[in-house]
Amino acid sequence: MTVPIEVLFLKALLLTDGVETLVLFLVIKLWLKIPRAVLSNALLLFSGIYCSATTVPYLWFVLPPLWRRLSLPDSLGSYRYALFLVVGESLVFLAEAVFYFFVLRIGVWRSLLVSLVCNAASLVAGFVIF
Predict the structure, then answer these.
(1) Buried b (16+ CB within 10 A) or exposed e, 61-79
(2) What residue spans define the domains of the chain?
């Protein structure tokens, strides 16, 4: 029995939201040591959930049709998915870094670092679980 894509998407979204929000808290509070007075828990919770909720649908439903229109050569074979993954995750990483920069106001390099760590954690979790 094939699992509908909508069910797979919801599982991926919940996993991504959970992992990235948890990692966001850990990175901000434990690694960067930014106190609650500077960045509230409510803002971190909102940011973690919002970033995933706005980028995952694009990665699952908007980017694939655009990717198919590129007409990549058949010689790429199974590398097509790997290339799609690199391009898609890079776009998500950059979009979330921009969000963190403007909303959390933690600077460019910290925003890039936070986005990289959060996205890497959710990507690894996705590979392990799915």
Answers:
(1) eebeeeeeeeeeeeeeeee
(2) 5-129
